[in-house]
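User: quick one, fold this
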Amino acid sequence: MKFLLDMGLANSTAIFLRGRGYDAIHLREEGLQRLEDKQIIAKALQENRIVLTHDLDFGRIVALSHQQYPTVITFRLDDMQPSQVNHYLTELLTQFAQELKIGALVSVNEQVIRVRQLPV
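Assistant:
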């Protein structure tokens, strides 16, 4: 799996994912921190990447597109420290890897991980 991390997440989460063998890039690493949301979605589609974000707009954009991709994982944690994000991300990748590959909108908070298959 390949990941694209939005500005709301720490670059250390991209490093965390790469350390586990995933292809992960952060927008800041590519100098794209000012890229608009729709352009980020287009980049994820073009590069077959899963978007990791804290921004609710990405899920809305993908849902309204009625497309099957890209998968968007939205973290809505009270504590967005990288250690917490990485913990829930590990759980998510363990439990829902197949759903992520076939297109989904995922919302992660401390109580539950919700997965909706795309298109919605």
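User: anything notable?
Assistant: The chain has a mean pLDDT of 96.
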